[in-house]
Design brief:
Structural class: alpha+beta
Helix content: 55-70%
Order of helices and strands: HEEEEEEE
Distance between the termini: 145 Å
Number of helices: 1
Largest sheet: 4 strands, antiparallel
Strand content: 15-25%
Number of strands: 7
Length: about 200
């Protein structure tokens, strides 16, 4: 009898193990499916949040690009204006250098003319240079500066450079350029031009 009871117990335990294994195998896909649905929902939510983040970043990039383009245009405009200013200054310097060169060329010619007039070989009577006809100050003109027989005058018509012996419209002949009482004076046949301190 004992062997039958042992055999029955072994059969019962084997049956239980078999039924448990079959139940485990049958119920496992349901648990996996339930877990898969939850994971799938989480993935969908993550993808949707990722799409929103990408859309926000795309908007930020577009705004940054627009701001950068505006900044580049403004910088280009400023740079263009700066280049124009530099070119204008270079042109003005070139014109000033040309005037100075021309004056430097005229100065030896004036010196040669003066030397020829004072040369002992010249015959005839030399009239003494008349004193300035009027010693009145010419209004509307002033001496800005003077150097080496050349004066820069400023008046209603603008700034001009004059040299001794030169005829200037509305001012007459430049008789003398001299420094007196701490300022420059230009004596002309029509009056005196003084520097303003």
């Amino acid at each position: 009898m004992a062997p039958f009871i042992t055999l029955a117990m072994i059969v019962a335990i084997s049956s239980l193990i078999s039924i448990g294994g079959v139940a485990y195998l049958l119920l496992r896909p349901i648990a996996i499916n339930a877990a898969s649905d939850a994971e799938l929902r989480n993935l969908r939510e993550a993808m949707s949040q990722l799409r929103r983040t990408v859309a926000t970043l795309s908007g930020d990039v577009a705004a940054s690009r627009t701001a950068l383009d505006a900044t580049n245009r403004a910088t280009s405009d400023r740079f263009g204006r700066l280049i124009q200013s530099v070119e204008r200054v270079e042109r003005d310097q070139s014109l000033s250098a040309t005037k100075i060169d021309r004056m430097a060329e005229e100065k030896p010619q004036v010196a040669r003319t003066v030397a020829a007039v004072s040369s002992p070989e010249v015959t005839g009577t030399i009239q003494p240079r008349p004193a300035t006809a009027r010693q009145e100050i010419i209004q509307g003109w002033r001496v800005r500066r003077a150097y080496e027989g050349v004066a820069i005058l400023e008046g209603q018509t603008g700034v001009i450079e004059v040299a001794q012996g030169q005829d200037v419209p509305n001012l007459g002949r430049i008789e003398e350029i001299k420094r007196e009482n701490g300022g420059w004076q230009v004596l002309t046949s029509k009056g005196i031009i003084v520097s303003v301190r």
